[in-house]
């Protein structure tokens, strides 16, 4: 957590984790295809584990029985925190006065000890609260402490075989970190972790590099991201000056055909246990049922059969083939909102749980109760917490520069 050296590598690794150019998935999270890498030899892991597991269906069983609807659900809204005392109000308001110096995150050394305090101002408690869960997994926000876990996957040749990497420019990194990991309308990135690490079998390392081997399923196991693509004519859906910020609605996302794209990877010693399959299903649900994507896509490279199977199993149908600078053709798969709803919420109207509600203009966490911390100078900036207010006030180009005093 506190290590300094390697900070750039983490940023680099994080960037690559989400630069939108790779796909790698647990090779037997589907039901077919052979091992991609290490000793798989673990037939038993596929089907033993309890309820969420679907019956193994090599054949077209689903055609007869219909699709098993997704069992994930929208969580209840997080209640508002207790009201603050007048003393607390006074203390916080001292921090948010006109003229206090603003700051940026430095592009490099971003995660070193020197800049940790700054990072912690911007990455507020509620920036970190958005989590998803499945029967066996918790999908949480990526943390600085995930460095080692990220590296083990990123630098592993076995994993790289199924990936495509692009390299982000240095200038992108600062903004990207802030936008992607701290407050984002473009990308939702989750670290995959086990609720009970002992429930997973860590495979023999086989040819996995010694430095990349794991011995248990604790901590960061991989990641899964949903990246939103906005067409040029779409608004940013970010908070705007002078306006109370509200969660974009399904209707707006539909109007501009906002598409989500999934990216994911997992440590090779955990392949073969349906981990990615479980995570994929839940992130797909989140994108459809909570964000309201018009469609969601994934484009595994040719030959990545496990990943292709994951798409088709979840109703993403092949649409077309694309190429890239790496000359590795990708098979584009997609599912629309209507199709997802029909498969997973049979008989139910599409409904928009969060759209249109007021949300904190810093963390934009739409699962929280509507923000009730107000800027004392204007009447349109609202936050879920003082930490979020402070972050927006202290960020260069943030609220302090746009705030119009009430007249
Ligand atoms: Zn907030
Ligand atoms: Zn204001």
TrEMBL record:
<feature type="compositionally biased region" description="Basic and acidic residues">
    <location>
        <begin position="88"/>
        <end position="97"/>
    </location>
</feature>
<feature type="region of interest" description="Disordered">
    <location>
        <begin position="22"/>
        <end position="98"/>
    </location>
</feature>
<feature type="domain" description="MYND-type">
    <location>
        <begin position="360"/>
        <end position="403"/>
    </location>
</feature>
<dbReference type="InterPro" id="IPR051531">
    <property type="entry name" value="N-acetyltransferase"/>
</dbReference>
<dbReference type="GO" id="GO:0008270">
    <property type="term" value="F:zinc ion binding"/>
</dbReference>
<keyword id="KW-0479">Metal-binding</keyword>
<keyword id="KW-0862">Zinc</keyword>
<feature type="compositionally biased region" description="Basic residues">
    <location>
        <begin position="47"/>
        <end position="61"/>
    </location>
</feature>
<dbReference type="Pfam" id="PF01753">
    <property type="entry name" value="zf-MYND"/>
</dbReference>
<dbReference type="InterPro" id="IPR002893">
    <property type="entry name" value="Znf_MYND"/>
</dbReference>
<protein>
    <recommendedName>
        <fullName>MYND-type domain-containing protein</fullName>
    </recommendedName>
</protein>
<dbReference type="GO" id="GO:0016747">
    <property type="term" value="F:acyltransferase activity, transferring groups other than amino-acyl groups"/>
</dbReference>
<keyword id="KW-0863">Zinc-finger</keyword>
<dbReference type="InterPro" id="IPR016181">
    <property type="entry name" value="Acyl_CoA_acyltransferase"/>
</dbReference>
<dbReference type="InterPro" id="IPR000182">
    <property type="entry name" value="GNAT_dom"/>
</dbReference>
<dbReference type="Pfam" id="PF13302">
    <property type="entry name" value="Acetyltransf_3"/>
</dbReference>
């Amino acid at each position: 957590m506190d290590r300094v050296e390697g900070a750039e590598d983490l940023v680099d690794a994080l960037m690559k984790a989400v630069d939108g150019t790779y796909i790698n998935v647990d090779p037997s999270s589907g039901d077919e295809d052979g091992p991609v890498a290490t000793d798989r030899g673990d037939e038993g892991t596929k089907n033993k584990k309890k309820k969420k597991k679907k019956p193994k269906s090599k054949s077209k069983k689903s055609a007869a029985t219909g699709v098993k609807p997704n069992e994930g659900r929208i969580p209840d809204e997080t209640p508002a925190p207790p009201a603050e005392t007048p003393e607390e109000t006074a203390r916080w308001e001292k921090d948010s006065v006109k003229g206090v110096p603003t700051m940026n995150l430095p592009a490099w050394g971003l995660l070193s000890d020197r800049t940790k305090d700054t990072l912690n101002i911007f990455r507020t408690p509620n920036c970190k609260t958005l989590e998803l869960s499945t029967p066996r997994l918790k999908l949480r926000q990526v943390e600085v402490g995930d460095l080692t876990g990220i590296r083990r996957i990123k630098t592993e040749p076995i994993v790289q075989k199924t990936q495509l990497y692009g390299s982000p420019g240095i200038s992108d990194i600062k903004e990207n970190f802030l936008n992607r990991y701290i407050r984002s309308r473009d990308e939702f990135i989750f670290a995959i972790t086990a609720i009970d690490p002992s429930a997973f079998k860590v495979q023999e390392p086989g040819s996995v590099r010694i430095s990349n081997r794991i011995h248990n399923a604790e901590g960061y196991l991989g990641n899964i991201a949903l990246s939103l693509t906005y067409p040029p004519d779409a608004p940013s859906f970010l908070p705007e000056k002078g306006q109370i910020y509200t969660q974009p609605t399904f209707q707006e996302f539909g109007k501009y055909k906002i598409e989500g794209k999934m990216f994911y990877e997992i440590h090779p010693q955990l392949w073969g246990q349906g981990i990615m399959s479980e995570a994929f299903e839940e992130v797909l649900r989140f994108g459809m049922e909570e964000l309201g994507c018009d469609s969601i896509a994934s484009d595994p490279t040719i030959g990545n059969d496990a990943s292709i199977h994951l798409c088709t199993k979840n109703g993403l149908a092949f649409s077309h083939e694309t190429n890239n600078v790496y000359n590795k053709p990708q098979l584009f798969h997609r599912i629309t909102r209507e199709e997802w709803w029909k498969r997973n919420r049979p008989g139910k109207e599409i409904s928009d749980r969060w759209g249109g509600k007021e949300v904190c203009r810093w963390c934009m966490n739409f699962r929280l109760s509507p923000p009730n911390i107000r800027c004392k100078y204007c009447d349109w900036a609202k936050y879920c917490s003082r930490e979020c207010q402070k972050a927006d006030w202290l960020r260069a180009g943030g609220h302090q520069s746009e705030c119009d005093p009430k007249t």
